[in-house]
Design goal:
alpha/beta, 5-stranded parallel sheet, 8 helices, UDP N-Acetylglucosamine Acyltransferase, domain 1, 2 domains
Length: about 325
């Protein structure tokens, strides 16, 4: 067996091979570019917003109603420049990407627009807070296991996912989708619940258990809707153009009207599919067409086979042995 090459030579070969691979195929390589939003900074911004909207739950303790105004001002003073900086990066990144060939917009050219968008987003915070309180109350009203609103805010993954969605949706609406998507994907990784920031979701929205829920970009959800774990509101297919590329910008995901409940692992697909007001979609239902208001959609109960275990039976007579 021959002796291995010195570590320096081995590293040099790997470096040369990777450098050559990056030059030959520049996809998924972000060098020689001036602008790119920072995922770490965006997560920090998100946590700061959650601290602002849920005082005493996410950030430092010690505030009371007498000094709460001072605390809000302090958070806003810290939040605004962080958010403005990342929005500027996002706007300039978009312009640089569209320009191609590594051409960057002149420094500072995106800053005025970033300042406008930051102020517009901050002005929407009271309305976002109002929606979040209604979502938390809906979670408490919809779950008999809940003991308090405090427990829901601190412990319920569905409430965290919806809270992040509400924040990200406002940024998406303002035209900063990269930041919005990073926020909702952070929530996805934390909760197992994937809500695209472009979805439109009404008030008093509750996702119970949360894990495995998927809500697509063009989904529309009314008020007082409740989802259980594993629900998918997705697309039937992706239409393509003559070159085989996906056609973007069309409604691909369903509409769920007010007061609907979708039980565990229900799947509703298609941009033309409408689930009518106050309907109930049972567990594991696969639905790809519209149903009228007050519908009850369920699967026919499967036929069960029950066998009594008997030690004299051969092993292959046992259906399950766990």
């Amino acid at each position: 067996m021959t002796d291995p090459d010195p570590p320096e030579a081995a590293r040099r070969r790997v470096t040369e091979a990777l450098s050559r691979a990056f030059r030959d195929d520049p996809r998924a390589v972000c060098v020689s570019k001036h602008y790119l939003p920072s995922r770490a900074a965006i997560v920090e911004i998100l946590k700061t917003i959650l601290d602002l909207l849920y005082p005493g739950y996410f950030g430092p303790r010690g505030s009371d109603h007498e000094n709460l105004g001072m605390r809000i001002e302090e958070i806003l003073a810290r939040l605004a420049p962080m958010l403005e900086r990342e929005i500027e990066q996002c706007l300039c990144y978009g312009r640089e990407r569209d320009a191609g060939d590594g051409e960057a917009p002149p420094g500072g050219e995106c800053a005025p627009r970033a300042r406008q968008l930051t102020q517009a987003f901050l002005a929407r915070l009271p309305a976002i807070r109002g929606m979040l309180v209604r979502d938390v109350q809906a979670a408490y009203d919809g779950d008999p296991a809940a003991t308090s609103l405090d427990e829901i805010i601190l412990a319920y993954p569905g409430v965290l996912a919806v809270s992040v969605y509400r924040i990200a949706h406002e940024l998406h609406t303002l035209g900063v989708p990269m930041i919005a998507r990073i926020m909702t994907e952070w929530a996805h990784s934390r909760t197992g619940c994937d809500i695209h920031p472009g979805a439109r979701i009404g008030p008093e929205f509750f996702i119970d258990h949360a894990t495995g829920v998927v809500i697509g970009e063009t989904t529309e959800i009314g008020a007082r809707v409740k989802l259980y774990q594993g629900v998918t509101l997705g697309a039937l297919s992706f239409p393509r153009d003559a070159d085989g590329q996906i056609i973007r910008g069309r409604k691909r995901h369903p509409t769920v009207e007010d007061g609907v409940t979708l039980y565990a692992n229900a799947t509703v697909l298609g941009g033309g599919t409408v689930v009518g007001t106050d309907s109930v979609i049972g567990g594991s239902v696969f639905l790809a067409h519209s149903v009228p208001p007050r519908s009850r959609v369920s699967l026919k109960e499967p036929e069960l086979r029950v066998a009594v275990r008997d030690p004299v039976l051969p092993l292959d007579a046992a259906f399950f042995d766990i």
